[in-house]
Amino acid sequence: MTKLTITEKQNGCFHAIPASLKKEIIISSYGKYMSRIPYFYDFPQNLIEEIVLLLIEEVYLESDVVVEASLSSDGLIIVDVGVLAVRSSVDENTQYLIDGDYFGEISLVTDESYASPSVVAMISCKLLFLDKNAFRNMMRRYPKLFFAMKEQIVSKFSPLKL
Predict the structure, then answer these.
(1) Fewer CB within 10 A of the end CB, N or C, for the chain?
(2) CATH, domain range 3-132+150-160
(3) Biggest alpha carbon distance in the chain?
(4) Domain ranges (residues) in the chain
(5) pTM for this one?
(6) pLDDT per residue over 47-105, tens digit each?
(7) How far out from the chain centre does Cα 136 lie?
(8) What CA–CA distance (Å, rounded) separates 106 from 157?
């Protein structure tokens, strides 16, 4: 559980904080993740903040399946706290995702099918989910940035296309 979540749940004062200050706390807490993802490097700060406000917190317990193999994601998933195991049906090796790592970015820019491994929580995890539809709706105001991002992501994933 993150410090922000603990504060939200246990501190009665947090509920009395004005919405604008809560917004700043969320941007401060999660903005660092967005700024580390290469696809968002060229995005202006105000757009990064808008994207951060779209993030949805999701909690998974140990052994919960986050994404099943060969199923496309419904958006970008960022590990806030925890460890995820990435198991490919093709490769016997297991890779791990930790705080700040992300996956599912291809779903933000296309609905085409790509080979995807299964992702399972190794311990209790808090993930940040960016819904692809909410992201696409927001990016309609920034078509040049969206298509530049799409080009980057699709070129990275083209060998995995089904």
Answers:
(1) C
(2) 2.60.120.10
(3) 51
(4) 3-132+150-160
(5) 0.85
(6) 999 999 999 999 999 999 998 886 777 899 999 999 999 987 666 778 999 999 999 99
(7) 14
(8) 7
